[in-house]
């Protein structure tokens, strides 16, 4: 079994590991800490991709157009559907998953992902092909937008009585 512990740094994680060892007397191994990173774009970018495949002897063509726009301070990524309709559902779901997981290092941050176009030249749309087209278009849009890796960050709130502010700030 594996247990993942998140912390604010290597020292913080070492302290947690020591506390668990002392309280439980269990023997366990601690792996190297990994920093969770986020990714963003420096400027607006657009990706337009067409993928082809043979399905039951017929060539199927699916295409997607995706735009990425930086949204400084927005936080979590926003995925916008500019197409609508049933054909857009599969690529839209794929874009939402990719925005949450990220393309290279971690979840996307401060970015709006827009599904700007979808097409499928087949009697029966191929969901996997539409998803692949969405992924490739997003990768292309991110490259065009100057994909950047954001520094790790920590956000916290501190509540204490006014008389305790000075010693608490000194500790921080």
What is the structure about, briefly put?
The chain has 172 residues and is of the alpha+beta class. It has helices spanning 10-24, 89-101, 127-144, 165-171, and strands at residues 38-41, 45-55, 58-70, 78-81, 111-121, 147-150.
Spell out the blueprint of helices and strands:
Layout: H1 10-24, E1 38-41, E2 45-55, E3 58-70, E4 78-81, H2 89-101, E5 111-121, H3 127-144, E6 147-150, H4 165-171
Parallel strand pairs: 4-5
Antiparallel strand pairs: 1-6, 2-3, 3-5
Helix pairs in contact: 2-3
Strand order of the largest sheet: 2-3-5-4
Mean pLDDT: 86
Number of helical stretches of at least 4 residues? 4
Q: Which structural class is indicated by helix and strand composition?
A: alpha+beta
Order of helices and strands: HEEEEHEHEH
Termini, distance in Å?
35 Å
Radius of gyration from the alpha-carbon trace, in angstroms = 22 Å
Provide the β-strand percentage band: 25-35%
Q: What is the total tally of β strands? A: 6
Biggest sheet, open or closed, and with what strands and sense?
4 strands, mixed
Instruction: Tell me, briefly, the overall form.
Output: elongated
Low-confidence stretches: none
**In which range does the helix fraction lie?**
25-40%
